[in-house]
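Q: Could you fold this chain for me?
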Amino acid sequence: MAFCYVLDTNFFVQAHRMYYPFDVFPTFWTKVQDLASRGIVLSIDKVRQELVHNRDELTQWVENSLPEGFFAASETVIGQYAQVAGWATSRAGHYKPAALSEFLHADEADAWLVAYSLADIGNRILITHEVSQPNARNRVKIPEACNAMGVRYMNSISMFRQLGIRF
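A: Sure. Below is the predicted structure, expressed as structure tokens.
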């Protein structure tokens, strides 16, 4: 079965800043571009907003290298977003108000990424570098929302392994 991998902002940011800088690992970025053009990876408009905010080399790559339609419209998953928001607010006894406010902020991508993945739960896997921290109270982590909603998630290395990609 072929899955569609939904990329979190940190997929791009950590790759660019820490692990795969453009000048050292151009093949990484070429492979991401190839996967995007084949519809194997995609993301949402909220991630694009977070990526272009810094106006740096990563912004230029995002704007010039990803195909039209790579960033899906988040408003197409309003129903699923309501489900994710409902779960988050039901956890108000656990999370601090600021954590819930951040997670549910309209411009914050995390809840929308979970919702987008939930909308086609059998075919979409969310790719994030966030690590589950169920006892954390100061931030709602993507893995907790995914676990609660039944959404599959993994990090980028697991995705590349699953796809059989080597660099």
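A (continued): The chain has a mean pLDDT of 97.
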